[in-house]
Write a structure and sequence with these properties.
Length: about 475
């Protein structure tokens, strides 16, 4: 009897251990997948774990249907579970961890589905308090009120995936074309644009005297990396930088941000604006093609639901070479139009957004280069064309549909006597003595440009407000995170 009992106990113990080993083995063999990987169908029939946030919940009498998204794809993964796995905390917006078997879906609306064995609610979400509702399509203006939560919406998660791919595309273009990336400083003493719209940087704390400069000279957040790139262009023939820039412009318009991203490049050994326009156009086309190919679903979301009809504008842009007109020709076009402009269109005036958008439409609603601006409109570093009677500089802007100016650039004044005279005329010769040194020691003709990255995204997606294409927009009188 005791032997039989011992045998029974041993058998039960072995069975318990076996279940424990089986459970541990199953847990160990679970393959963690992103939603985009699961949707690819490469792991059909395997035991997997998916983590993400619930986009929809549909309980039925015997089954439970969830859609789970982790930001890796616009599409969500359908999860099918028995009703016994339902939980009151399993709501729209909650974070979950789902384990189960990945199977081919019988529905034609999705390629695969996850047959859940276990659903664990990692983070609860009260759908009544959550500002985004499960069946509502929220406008960009509405979700802008919630900068800390808007990444959870379809539109803004699509925007961030597009932004990431566009960033990679720009770096790829420069690498493939022999440019060296330079990390230019965020804190600088230079006001490259000369507009005076600077954020001054000062240390905080009682140990610092008010009239003491931490860097021995006043320091500011950069408005451009151009001058530092010019330093590097004395040793490398092609350089670029990509990073944040800052303007203390007191504006809350749809076009302005206090912090935005710029792509800037310098090309040495050139005396032709055409060399610059080739790089501008090549980068624009390369980045746009990359985004359209790699983010097709995300771009379609914008072109269908946010900016309907804009896809045709983008396709038209990509089919034509960008035309080139001079500033003088642009003024003639504006003056011969039947439009009534708010700002004057006399020769020598600065082109305003209304002028830029009209010129784009006049040229077939396609990007257009405008060259040879009045000399007095451009900063000290723009190369003098030495022409007359209308004195111009070798400068160029790229104007694009819906935005206006996207790129601005120029050949740089490499002639020491002319540059020195202009700096002396504006009282900056001592401040920029180092800049003159660049012309004294091995100077070469060169030029460069800057592209507003956030405006590029506006152009491709058709988004009207620049605050809707950047993760955390900073602008005057805002309360950023």
């Amino acid at each position: 009897m005791f032997q039989a009992a011992a045998k029974t106990l041993s058998s039960a113990s072995t069975s318990s251990v076996s279940r424990g080993i089986s459970s541990s083995l199953r847990h160990y063999c679970e393959k963690r997948l992103r939603v985009s990987e699961a949707l690819s169908g490469a792991d059909l029939g395997t035991n997997v774990k998916v983590q993400g946030w619930v986009r929809s919940v549909r309980p039925q009498k015997t089954n439970l249907f969830l859609h789970v998204n982790d930001g890796s794809s616009l599409q969500s993964l359908q999860v099918v579970a028995g009703s016994e796995l339902n939980d009151p905390s399993l709501t729209f917006g909650s974070a979950v961890e789902v384990t189960g078997i990945l199977k081919k879906s019988p529905s034609q609306t999705q390629p695969v589905e996850l047959e859940a064995e276990q659903i664990h609610v990692v983070g609860k979400c009260n759908p009544l308090d959550f500002p985004f509702k499960i069946k509502d399509r929220h406008s960009l203006e509405y979700i802008r009120q919630f900068p800390h939560l808007r990444c959870r919406t379809n539109a803004f998660s699509s925007l961030l995936r597009i932004r990431s791919e566009a960033t990679a595309a720009i770096h790829s273009y420069f690498k493939e074309n022999g440019f060296l990336q330079i990390h230019t400083p965020i804190i600088t003493s230079n006001d490259c644009e000369g507009a005076g719209e600077l954020f001054q940087v000062e240390p905080s704390g009682p140990e610092h005297e008010e009239d003491e400069n931490y860097f021995s000279v006043p320091a500011f957040l950069t408005v451009s990396g151009q001058l530092h790139l010019e330093v590097m262009s004395g040793a490398f023939s092609r350089v670029y930088t990509f990073g944040p820039t800052f303007r203390a412009e007191n504006s809350q318009s749809r076009r302005h941000l206090a912090e935005f991203y710029m792509v800037e490049a310098e090309v040495s050994f050139t005396q032709s604006l055409e060399d610059l326009t080739k790089v501008m156009e090549g980068m624009f086309r390369s980045a746009t093609e990359h985004v359209l190919a790699r983010c097709a679903e995300d771009v379609d979301l914008f072109h269908k639901h946010v900016t309907p009809g804009h896809r045709g504008t983008v396709e038209a842009m990509m089919k034509r070479r960008f035309p080139v007109i001079t500033y003088s020709e642009a003024i003639d076009i504006l003056n011969s139009s039947s439009e009534t402009f708010v700002f004057p269109t006399t020769w020598g005036c600065d082109l305003q957004t209304e002028h830029e958008k009209y010129l784009v439409k006049h040229c077939g609603n396609t990007p257009v280069f405008v060259t040879d601006y009045p000399y007095d409109l451009k900063p000290f570093y723009a190369r003098d064309n030495l022409d007359g009677p209308k004195h111009t500089a070798a400068a160029v802007d790229l104007l694009v549909p819906g935005v206006g100016e996207l790129c601005g650039g120029s050949l740089r004044e490499e002639r020491l006597d002319l540059l020195s005279a202009r700096l002396e005329a504006v009282g900056l010769e001592e401040t920029y003595s180092w800049y003159l040194d660049l012309r004294r020691f091995g100077s070469v003709p060169h030029g460069g440009f800057g592209l507003g990255f956030d405006r590029f995204l506006q152009c491709v997606l058709g988004v009207d407000n620049i605050k809707d294409v950047i993760p955390f927009p900073r602008f005057s009188h805002s309360c950023p995170l």
